[in-house]
Amino acid sequence: MILHERISALLPVWRDRIKALAKEHGDVVVDTVTIEEVLGGMRDIKSMYTDISSVDPAEGIRFRGLTINETLQALPKARGGKLPMVGGLYYLLMIGEVPSKEEAQWVEDEWGKRASVPDYVFKMIKAMPKDTHPMILLSQAVLALGKESVFNKRYHEGMKKDMYWEAALEDSLNLTARLPIIAAYIYRMKYFGESAKPKYNPKLDYGANFAKMMKVSDKKGYADLMRLYFTIHSDHESGNASAHAMHLVGSTLSDAYFSFSASLNALAGPLHGLANQESLAWLLDVRKMFGGVPTRENLYKFAWDTLNSGKVIPGYGHGILRVIDPRFITQMEFAKKRFPDDELLRLADMVLDVVPAVLKEQGKAKSPAPNVDAISGTLQYYYGVREFDFYTVLFGVGRALGVTANYVWARGLGQPIERPKSLTTKMLEDLAEKVVKPA
Ligand code: HAX
User: Fold this and answer.
1) Distances (CA, A) of 65 to 48, 53, 55, 165, 195
2) pLDDT of 438 over the 70 cut
3) Residue 20 CB less than 6 A away from ligand 1
4) What is the pLDDT, as a whole number, of residue 428?
5) How far apart are CA 180 and CA 424, in angstroms?
6) pLDDT tens string 36-71
7) How many Å apart are CA 151 and CA 36, to the nearest integer?
8) pLDDT tens digit sequence for 278-320
9) Residue 314 CA, ligand 1 centroid: distance in Å
10) Which of 68, 64, 103 is closest to 87 using CA atoms?
11) pLDDT band at 435 (very low <50, low <70, confident <90, very high)
12) Which of 243-247, 387-391, 433-437 has the lowest mean pLDDT?
């Protein structure tokens, strides 16, 4: 049990570091909080900690200290593919070290052993009305799996606090092993009317399994796309809505299934993960309106029409990033290498040229640059996954890797129940008044 042994060995060191920080430097001021930040969705307030990933506004994501390119270079490649095994990424997130091929394969093998979903989950998904959004189906399925939670069972048997992490890891491995099967079932059942349960082949890696279960031809490298996709969507430090939702719910000692269902519910919002479906819909609207790739002038006008109708341009802007999202760049590079002449890709490229200028002119968005969602749908569309209300499900499968790694470590480090303080408007006004007219 490599992950179990490694985390067990690492935990005492980390617990001592956190204990020392709290004991010796507990009163050091990390950040000040302004009224603007309180009113503005706590944007940028430094009030959480995680070592799984970090986002620099001027650089983007680092997974355990590695940029996306460094991560892709360092991790062991999947057999028959050009991209790394997702199992290696999970090891990196969990342990903080680049795994050997054997260590990455160990995670893949664990997934292979744990990849079975109880029948009642499929029945429940199938019983839902046909027009149910796939994110509802995914979140329901995850919640229903809570019945199987190892953490929940052991908690009620009196598990010791310093062993919470191990039960959390068991649930996390089971959950991440099951998600591709559930996602593929939702896809085949909802759009193709198939009710056969997808079969996970333990001889193949996570990406290849997903491509197979989705029944997307791998001729042009869909398995590689999904290896990349799951990797770059896994984590984005802890303050984003889906990661924070998982963390908050997990902090009450709700199990990984309750917590990840909450995470998915946050991801399903149009300002968060749903932006990938909205973004592709916006591109297709442009293409339909102009019968192909429009002129720059027409695209410029279309973008302004979107803003003037009170809508956001999906896929652009970010809560904390202030440069082009490296997750966007990596996907763009992947696409340009494989299908440079694709019409939607050319359109996405033109949008990249025009939309930031429009957003700058409007002057509201703090970042006019594209985020991860501006391009991911275009890649799926190329490979034939064109049911774009499904795209956030794909994001959800990837996001599970990062948020469960955070969840395991949060239990390991004994992170407490979250409970920030709220103020009334009157309290804020009184505070402001004191500053304007000090006594
Ligand atoms: N189009 C139009 N207006 C935008 C905009 C966009 N793409 N991005 C920001 N703005 C507007 C905001 O709506 C806000 O307007 P109001 O003052 O009228 O409320 C103003 O610019 C300031 O916003 P901000 O501080 O720059 O951005 P926020 O931190 O408030 O929000 C969002 C960040 C990502 C939600 C925002 O940029 C947005 O709505 N983008 C479009 C939706 C999107 O792509 N979401 C996915 C983000 C990545 C992600 O989480 N993926 O899962």
Assistant:
1) 17, 7, 10, 23, 42
2) no
3) no
4) 97
5) 44
6) 999 999 998 999 999 999 999 999 999 999 999 999
7) 40
8) 999 999 999 999 999 999 999 999 999 999 999 999 999 998 9
9) 8
10) 103
11) confident
12) 433-437
Q: Is the CB of 370 under 6 A from ligand 1?
A: no
Q: Is the model's pTM score more than 0.70?
A: yes
- The distance from CA 139 to its chain's CA centroid, rounded to whole angstroms, is 14
Question: 23 C-alpha to center of ligand 1: Å?
Answer: 39
Q: Which two tokens stand for residue 128?
A: 């839902």
Over its C-alpha atoms, the chain yields an Rg (Å, rounded) of: 22
- Cβ of 320 closer than 6 Å to ligand 1, yes or no, is no
* Residues tagged active-site: 272, 318, 373
In this model, does residue 148 exceed pLDDT 80? yes
Pocket test for ligand 1, best of 237, 318, 361, 362 (most atoms within 8 A of CB): 318
Question: Which residue's entry shows tokens 């229903």?
Answer: 144
Q: What is the pLDDT of residue 218?
A: 73
Q: Hey, whose CA ends up nearest to atom 47 of ligand 1? A: 272
Q: Dihedrals φ, ψ of 403, to 5°?
A: -70, -30
Within 13 A of 89's CA, how many CA atoms are on the CB side?
37
Given a cut of 80, is residue 219 above it in pLDDT? no
315 lines ligand 1 (CB under 6 A): yes
Output the six-digit token pair for 234. 């896994």
The distance from CA 1 to its chain's CA centroid, rounded to whole angstroms, is 26
Is 275-382 the same fold as 53-270? no
Q: Where are the domains of the chain?
A: 2-47, 53-270, 275-382
Q: Which fold has domain 275-382?
A: Cytochrome p450-Terp; domain 2 (1.10.230)
For ligand 1, atom 9, name the residue with the nearest CA. Answer: 365
- The third-level CATH classification (topology) of the domain covering 53-270 is Citrate Synthase; domain 1 (1.10.580)
Q: What's the gap in Å between 179 CA and the centre of ligand 1?
A: 29
Span from the CA of 282 to the centroid of ligand 1 (angstroms):
15
Torsions phi, psi of 258, nearest 5? Answer: -60, -45
- Interior CA angle at 259 toward 164 and 17, to 5°? 45
Q: pLDDT tens digit string along 85-114?
A: 999 999 999 999 999 999 999 999 999 999
